[in-house]
Structures
1.
Amino acid sequence: MGGIEEQVAGVNKCTPKENGTMTSLSSDAVINLDIGDPTLFQSYWSKIGDKCTIAFSGCQSLSYFANTKNLCWFLEPELEEQIKRIHSVVGNAAVEDHHIVVGTGSTHLIHAALFALCPPDCPEPTSVVCAAPYYSCYPEATDFLRSGLYKWAGDAQTFDKDGPYLEIVTSPNNPDGSIREAIVKGIQGKLIHDLAYYWPQYTPITCCAHYDVMLFTASKCTGHAGSRIGWALVKDKDVARKMTKFIEVTTIGVSKEAQLRTAKILGVISDSCLHPGSNNFFEYGRRLMAGRWEKLREVMGRGELFSLPEYPQEYCLFTGEYSESQPGFAWMKCDENIEDFEKFLRGHKILARNGSRFGSDPKHVRASMLCTEEEFELFIERLLTIRGTSNGNHYF
Amino acid sequence: MGGIEEQVAGVNKCTPKENGTMTSLSSDAVINLDIGDPTLFQSYWSKIGDKCTIAFSGCQSLSYFANTKNLCWFLEPELEEQIKRIHSVVGNAAVEDHHIVVGTGSTHLIHAALFALCPPDCPEPTSVVCAAPYYSCYPEATDFLRSGLYKWAGDAQTFDKDGPYLEIVTSPNNPDGSIREAIVKGIQGKLIHDLAYYWPQYTPITCCAHYDVMLFTASKCTGHAGSRIGWALVKDKDVARKMTKFIEVTTIGVSKEAQLRTAKILGVISDSCLHPGSNNFFEYGRRLMAGRWEKLREVMGRGELFSLPEYPQEYCLFTGEYSESQPGFAWMKCDENIEDFEKFLRGHKILARNGSRFGSDPKHVRASMLCTEEEFELFIERLLTIRGTSNGNHYF
């Protein structure tokens, strides 16, 4: 009930109720690294305190509309402004000649892009492809409604059909962190660039991306997955209009509260990059991810029992330094003595996602590097135990 | 960027920026009653002040998860509690033996229900029907992805196909406010009850609804369309699970900010009903709607130029009084001298939705009764002008 004072008094305590990730784990707890729940930046946001706090009164955001003058009529002007600002501060994507379409997470916008980009009057569904290993959600997202407009056609590397197609280019790639370009070179192809992880905490910013359709999400940029805010940068006006129409028909817009809070958070991050002395969010994120990757590579050893991808040193335009990628997921491969790596890790109370889900094989798993500090420490401990008990490769 | 004080200082001023509906209208402005933007309760929420204010800190709602123990794992426990509470306070729907699934507005949940209820392995798409006049968005929502699972089959009153089908029962009905029951009596039919307007401000609560799938939305209950929060009450566990799966595949959950704010607002409304002396939200809403309907019936006259549906007096279990329905939309019919009522009203700077969009005819329009006070007054003024200039039925 109470007034705003009560709200404020409670607001800066992140209890488990407010944040599902803060419950303390017992030493024999199963740790879930199957999903990429981005809770790793929690301590940063706890330290930020009220600088990021936003309040809503009962009389705000009653209308469906946010800006009737905008093509994307439900996009809050503050969010549009802060999206443009953070991209120009980071330099990872061109915004000036692009329209912004907001969605309930970038997943919503993948669906919107498929709808907007497939030819409207094709006799048969347009093929949707992505190079393996591809994000495990793409096939189901494409096929679950058995749409007559598009259908999943699998690995872009083996796709050789003539006619129109849609290729999803995920860069850095989920699950393996590789930097990617389009593979199919058909003349009737259209591209969707999923750039969810193209931020300095995960990879060097090597260029200002300038593709036709680019997808981003607050979940992986700021770590606020609970807000469900994603945005698309779209060059072509009609494509942006069709994506906006998709969001209208499926959900009649996107939560104003989530949009305004995301605008606030993006603003705080941009400020943190621009004002010397303030705690640069991306520097914090880079240090955190670098520390985790260092620990992981150390415990796994370079190719002894399991192997990890190697990433080249690249010059980052944002930091002005050479560095390696430190992806949000570890794409781990086991050696010949293990058939099913996911099953093996489950035996050690580590849940990771089976490589076969990504169009790869069961000798691979994807393990989230975006978990809480506590989960990550348990993950490292258990990998150490596995190594300790694995002399002579007797795994079972 | 300031701290919480700045937030609070600003939070209770509803500027046009914060609420698209507060810009002042010029006397010759076109008034848009085509969409049902529920901005009519604005003065109630402005008067509520800080009682409804909710604040979010930077470290809240990072995770995708809200309650891992719940079938609907992204549903905030507070929202679940307040949804159950308001239904038991109002007595309009049974909650105890139903699962709650939250969506980004009830539109999202219509899609989820179609997906969850159609037989999974049918050779051809399941027919989706609704009695005309039906909500104009149903046909497009059903067909826009050309799903192989379901397809729009039009007016339930003329539907005579054998085999499985889905019937949407909207009660009170959008556009005409009538109270409805299922019409098709096939043995393989499944029902979706869209009860968005089954609240005391719109219609007498004549029974506690106890259907298999019941859809509600904050937009029409509290007037907060900008939050995009809808909920489904679902009896069957597998159907609730499939609807939850749909929300997962399309948007990976629903904004936590919007859920927590809606929980707060629903709580304030329930309190307003339970504590004598406090400003009962539904009483306020009933007075407001009754006043608008009285003015509208007065200016239109009973059947002179245009006609409106008549509604029976019913006993309302919530108020303990007999009253008529006072729907969120006016379903207006013109007399024989007008061919296209929408076009006619547009000539008088009133935008309403053409009856043909609802499976009816151009002699009908749907005009929103949920607009701001200012818009409603202009609407009434212009209807008066039309009557004034219509002696001898010279309309043009």
2.
Amino acid sequence: MQQCFVKIRKSVLIIKYCSKFSNMRLDFVKINVCVQVDKQQQSKDSVYFRDGVRRIDFILSYIDDKDGEKKQVCHPPSYSLVSPECVCEVSAQNTPQIIYYIILKMPILSGSRNTLYWTRSRDANCESERYSLYKYWARFSSFYKEQPLNLIRKYYGEKIGIYFAWLGFYTEMLSYAAVVGLLCFIYGVATFDENVWSKEICNDTIGGQIVMCPLCDKKCGYWKLSTTCSSSWQSYLFDNTATVFFAIFMGIWVTLFLEFWKRRQARLEYEWDLVDFEEEQQQLQLRPEYETKCTHRRLNRVTQSPADKAGRFILCWATVVLWISLIIACIIGVIAYRLAVFAAFASIMKDSPTNKLDVVGTLITPQFATSVTASCINFVIIMILNFLYEHVAIKITDMEVPKTHVEYENKLTVKMFLFQFVNYYSSCFYVAFFKGKFVGYPGDYAYMFGKWRNEECEPGGCLIELTTQLVIVMVGKQVWGNIQEALVPWLRNWWVSRSARNHPESLYSRWEQDHDLQTFSQLGLFYEYLEMVIQFGFITLFVASFPLAPLLALMNNILEVRVDAWKFTTQFRRPVAAKAHSIGAWDEILNMIAVFSVVTNAFIVSFTSDMIPRLVYKYAYHLGSESTMEGYINNSLSIFNISEIPVENRPEEGENPDWFYSSNITTCRYRDYRYPPGHEKQYTHTMQFWHILAAKLAFIIIMEHVVFVVKFFVAWLIPDVPSDVKARTKREHYLIQEYLHDYELEKLKIQLSQNGPNIEPCTCPATAATSVKLEVFSDCLS
Amino acid sequence: MQQCFVKIRKSVLIIKYCSKFSNMRLDFVKINVCVQVDKQQQSKDSVYFRDGVRRIDFILSYIDDKDGEKKQVCHPPSYSLVSPECVCEVSAQNTPQIIYYIILKMPILSGSRNTLYWTRSRDANCESERYSLYKYWARFSSFYKEQPLNLIRKYYGEKIGIYFAWLGFYTEMLSYAAVVGLLCFIYGVATFDENVWSKEICNDTIGGQIVMCPLCDKKCGYWKLSTTCSSSWQSYLFDNTATVFFAIFMGIWVTLFLEFWKRRQARLEYEWDLVDFEEEQQQLQLRPEYETKCTHRRLNRVTQSPADKAGRFILCWATVVLWISLIIACIIGVIAYRLAVFAAFASIMKDSPTNKLDVVGTLITPQFATSVTASCINFVIIMILNFLYEHVAIKITDMEVPKTHVEYENKLTVKMFLFQFVNYYSSCFYVAFFKGKFVGYPGDYAYMFGKWRNEECEPGGCLIELTTQLVIVMVGKQVWGNIQEALVPWLRNWWVSRSARNHPESLYSRWEQDHDLQTFSQLGLFYEYLEMVIQFGFITLFVASFPLAPLLALMNNILEVRVDAWKFTTQFRRPVAAKAHSIGAWDEILNMIAVFSVVTNAFIVSFTSDMIPRLVYKYAYHLGSESTMEGYINNSLSIFNISEIPVENRPEEGENPDWFYSSNITTCRYRDYRYPPGHEKQYTHTMQFWHILAAKLAFIIIMEHVVFVVKFFVAWLIPDVPSDVKARTKREHYLIQEYLHDYELEKLKIQLSQNGPNIEPCTCPATAATSVKLEVFSDCLS
């Protein structure tokens, strides 16, 4: 579709589109009239010709009919276009310049109930809508206020309106999760003193006496458990019973969020008059790119798709797989880095002066240093891969030549989401479920690629490392995202308008300024959703390791709403308005994440956190007759005979600390449940190991079943559409049916009166299909 | 709605309905004309007046208008009723008797696209539709043929058509499951010889030497393991690795069944022209019972429901809960019976002559006798409760006074299904998940109500008992169901027509015969669905215990289709035709059962079957260096010191067999993993116990996650609507839109030509809403 013809007939500006396809119809562009405007009060938002006097009031556009005859009168609103628009002509004295950008891209919605039209300020006394939006919506100071959704919808169209409605609702729901998460964190802080095992670790007579086996080959020496004292304390903040509660709470919160959103969406759908809007109407619009490539295949309705589609399709998916493999390779690279670097850190830190600092020194363990640096490297890799992949994804989707915009967006959504899912979450998955799980034991360590010894977790648990990883990736992504979103368009606009900015106001007119703004790309909204959905994944999938995640997300989103608003009102041209009655494919993805999150959280609580071993110890293996946590640390560490450690795993000379040589140490401890040396089954798993394993698995089963049952019950209990909306919709349907019936009746009466009373009372209405009519007639006459 | 007026005007029979409600519209009844029928060839299915000459050809019915004016001409098909029906009058010379039953209950579908009509044989040369159905569909000899679905739909309406389509599809899908199930069973038979543990049980030097602890207090004596030899062999048939495979297979089969049914349904929906049919149109019809009770509340649209609804609602649910408690009480009663009776059987059988019979005697153990009699009692109780509850459920649903038929059926569905679910399955759940799980051990047995000692499973496993229970309940239900379904209507018809049967053919006319048939109650289809859904539950929920269940169901269904067909064509009056585009609420229930079945099967395989302990033994606790099953029986039985058995649990004098006294036996064995006497932790669980428990739980987790992931992936992969159906539907929508648009355009052209060319080119069409029109006009004129 291209603009091919502009002519000025007397006082009317006519912009004609050439459309080769009969199923595309152009809606009217209506620009409201400003009556008697004083030149001083001229609204900046009105569109003027260069001279600043002649205002463009209406534009009439029309299409060629199939038979080549040009329609000169208003194309009347078709039956299904009941929106009461009318297009008129108003004088624009002379032949002006071509104003090419007004009509550039109008949404074409044949068959939709309301035409979308492009309003500008009605008269100068009213504020322009855009300015109202800027004033009441885009300012950060109004962050606590509800968004003016109806105005947003009116100005930007339903699609963008739905996005902001969703974002607002999500932020609102997040606040509940954030409060509960904060309470869980506070519980952790409040019960800090009950943390018996950390006390034991820090205690000189318990933790100070326990000699641990080296954490890496050759470069690591023996170490005392008490060095992990502080990280054990930190760990407790996130690894306590409140976390289990919070994991279950979030499982149900997610369900409530999705269910209530469905209701909110249904209400919006009703209020914004989208109930009868069918996505298919938009789907029928072909993409221009598709049309240019496929014109010669027009006739065949079934095999309209390009012939070489299959080949390309496979190619495209091969590319996606390639990229995902690339990420996995990067992740493995990072893991290898962690394994390789750990030994180095361990070796360096042994003698480093930080060991002497009381406050900082105890915090910076080799594990911590490795974790943080690896997470940062990871984050940088994620960002670079993301940046590169974005372009690749768009290019391969272009290559597939999807038929419609909806199809295009869906194809891209799958590709991008799959990639980003792997990209953002895989490092967290590694830390949560693989790190420290396949370590082996001092006599028989497990190696990655036969080269790097697998990482161990700290005696405090792996959970704190997952938390670190999560915080770095999540916060980093959010900060970076906001900077990119706000700064990039601003810088671009600043660059584009650099020459014009010096002109006086009268010369740098409003429409030029508007034109110089960034265009809002068709995928702009897609990126906004993607960002939010990835964030949603962070706060649900790994919430058991970090109850403060919803709070971080909440703070980000409060900012995000206003940044987006600011961006929309000041940095972008008014985007092409489009209809949408839902958030589309994202709803399905959110549901998938919600289901998946229950599984990940159950596994995190049982396998990443130390909750279950502690509970099993407390109730089944405790010392004395009372159930207590005392002695847990000693119980949770197995004993290994130093003399049995293979030579290649032993620390090199000089790597061991001094105290090791000064005392006669024959055994070291490691984190596992195995029989001590000398036992008949030495170094095989003890009964406690199997007991704990059974408890872990039982916890997963119970948690998953309980949460899923509650989830589905809640989802079943909450109707998807509020009852009043349902009733009103039904009432309207009923009225329409009533109306249609009356109308047909009226028509038939006229018809019957014309046909005369001779065929009485057997009348076969003319509208009936002829073949059957004849059959019935013959019956009548026999 | 009632028939209040029948008059004969010249040659026309007019039956008038009085409808108080304007939203109810009567469709036409069309009875086709038979032209020039020889009296000899008169089709029996044509409707004649008593004299046998005057045939009823057309009946015209019409309704009063709102303004009281009677319409005399054909009520033309309304706009949305595009079906090309026309009603004419044909002579029926004299005033005949009133034929009251023809028009008794016509489906009233205002606004639907096709009117439903009641066809009789077109002419005498053609067979009547009912006769064709009887000939080609209702005979058992055509069981391998496809059902004539289109004819069924034409004759009985869409609702019944969909039922038979579903039943046929279900039977078809069952055949695959039956074949795989049979293969699994054959695998069990083929690998019979590899069953090492049964050999060990039967072996005189192993099983013959193992003395087992008494199974009940006082009345049971010590016994030798070899007595369970034969039941152990039987058990292997169902409790082998093929069963695990089959459980997983069925999890996926269920998904495929539901997904493919969706597609089939979508295709039927298209072919039967139900795409645009909205359930709501039927929902708008109020039930007469509701209307009579609520006439005075007509005005208030919102609070139309009876005021005392809440009270009744609670009452109704209280009744349901009461009945479910009643079932549970019955189940507990049966369990108590089992516990009580077992001792008796054990005591009797000890000396009974059956012990001497080689073939039968070894099969009839006290466990077996208890199982079978308990299952039979259970079955009888189930049937009696069912019979009683049916009436109660209908009564309490009547008391709730639901507004519409759909609402009525939904309310009843929930009540009936909930009840039947508990009624039919609870005994199976007891055997699968409770029996033998909470036994305790010889020193500390667990008691129900402190009185009856909990049942133990045989050393062969509980699975064989579940199989017995399942077979008895399932087969019993099916046989009983078929007898009831076929015999009861036949007997009733036989009774009703007893006087008329002796009349000659000419006097006992066709319509009288038809009138004497049973009426097909509005809930008839509901019961058919319920029966099938309960069967579906049997073959999915407990399939891991009995791979032949699908085969049994298949055989039943092949019969069921024809029995239903025979019943419909010969034993019932033609039912009221109704529209339906799906199987309704049952779809949701089937989905629920499908999800639930994965969980139950996973639990059956791990906890009811002996699979996991055997595998753990084979790979972790086997004797010697090779993984073998030898020694499993000895390993799986713990040792108890006879002298430590409490007095109240010891067998009474004379209950022990003779060999017990003749040898010096100090220990007995029981089924558990506990330390032997003399061990430091004697009678507490061994490591193997925790190891097996962990393996069981791990199996549940793995099986559930794998099956659910595959399930959802398959469900996502298979589109709900076949692509060609989708394309055709879209195409039709498109054509309708095109047509509507052209029509409106035509209308507008006429309008414009009438208005004259003076308002050129700015025309504001008259159809636009007036308020906005004025606004736009003012713009034009300024």
